Amino acid sequence: MTAQCLAENDKGHLTISGCDTVELAGIYGTPLYVMSEDEIRRVCRSYVDSFQKYYNCKGKPLYASKAFCCMEIVRIVLSEGLDVEVVSGGELYTALKAGAPGERIHFQGNNKTDAELQMALDHGVGDIVVDNPAELERLNAFAKAAGKVAKISLRITPGIEAHTHEFIRTGQLDSKFGTDLQSGAAMALVDRALELENVALTGLHCHIGSQILETEPFVHAAQVMLVFYKEITVRHPGFTLSSLNLGGGFGIRYTQQDRALPYDDYMQAVSAAVFERCAALELPVPDIYIEPGRSVVGEAGITLYTVGNIKEIPGVRSYVSVDGGMFENPRYALYLSEYTALIANKADKGKNFTATIAGKCCESGDLIGEHMPLQQPAPGDILAVLSTGAYNYSMASNYNRNPRPACVMVSNGTHRLVIRRETYEDLIRCDI
Ligand code: LLP
């Protein structure tokens, strides 16, 4: 099992936070996302605790809501003391509706629209992370028209290559995100931000990528950003930075091969580097923000399916088809992401079968995974795929007009619906 919330009961069924997954499938239907509130809260607390331990509470974790954005998860992370990072008007709307105060929202994005910037100003978003010079000018003009001063940070591309899938790397020079450090563009952005009257520069931000399983690139990013901070203070004497956001990206365990580090390890290594650099550069230590998404919700989630057709092609492979697919988990189709799966009603049996788990979309690449060890499957079995809490629901679509699944939150043996299953009526709601 990957996550702490998973176990097996005396019926030989997989359980999550004390709930029998086979019963959940019976009550709510499949495909079904199941999220463990206990696990989400445990991870949130470990981040909050590590800020006490390593930063003496100077700073805080934010939840990158793109990993799984729905009102209940936003409520949970807020109640644990995390702020919320959003990247679109839709995520901002969800966070506001879930009760997030504007000042606890951080708004990212490489191409925020005029309407989104306006919305952020209207709701008093506490940290608009400006991506580039053109956005800075637009925001300043809107803030001026509204008679406001927008609190901003600047998204800097620090020029760091993280070892992860190229589609989810973001810190390197060739990136659509942020303003580049090496060329001098980032300093020009700082100069301009300090000139403008309707923005208040409070922070710097970087994010080097996602599903990173080593501490070194995070340490390196912190060092590079602090050197940049020093350069700013030399150029603009008297300037102090309130916050330095070092992004998210902490890797999780999808399979037993993934060597995910305890989050505390990152915190310890990065905080040591921050204090050491600040002392060496004679800088006041800014508040440190981190914005994990995947690690907050990833291992807390599983997806339950009903096994349908099983097709054995002798000497080739065995397809085990399920009632979901790339419309509710596109990550294998996009990144060849690996997962761990098991038959939830046979959790106590050995895995003596190798499956290609196929979805129901009209597309050959619609797979949940290949070469997956499984218990002997049979039609009607409940198949569980583990560590699906991040970037599954949030990247789901209605491809082939499949309704998006429901999501159930489980905690200490109890369960409740937090996102209802879409209906066919929902699918034609916007059709005219
Ligand atoms: N902050 C920023 C600015 C980001 O762009 C991201 C992720 C995060 C924080 C959170 O990173 P995390 O802690 O979740 O790794 N769809 C891909 C992942 C895309 C990540 C995008 N940005 C996947 O399914 O793997």
Question: Short description, anyone?
Answer:
With 432 residues, the chain is an alpha/beta fold. It has helices at residues 21-28, 37-55, 71-79, 89-97, 114-122, 133-145, 185-195, 216-235, 263-281, 294-297, 331-335, 424-427; strands at 6-8, 14-16, 19-20, 32-36, 59-64, 83-86, 105-107, 127-130, 150-157, 179-180, 199-205, 243-245, 287-290, 301-313, 317-322, 341-343, 353-358, 367-374, 382-386, 406-411, 414-419.
CATH topology annotation of the largest domain: TIM Barrel
- Percent of residues in β-strands: 15-25%
Alpha carbon gap, first and last residue: 47 Å
What structural class is derived from the secondary structure elements?
alpha/beta
Second CATH tier, the architecture of the largest domain = Alpha-Beta Barrel
Considering the protein shown, what is the CATH homologous superfamily of the largest domain? Alanine racemase
Task: Give the radius of gyration.
Answer: 23 Å
Residues in helices, as a percent range: 25-40%
* Count of beta strands: 21
What does the main sheet amount to? 9 strands, mixed
Hetero ligands: ligand LLP
> In one word, what is the shape?
globular
* Poorly predicted tracts of residues: none
CATH domain class of the largest domain: Alpha Beta
Q: Would you tell me the overall average pLDDT?
A: 95
Number of domain modules = 2
Number of helices: 12
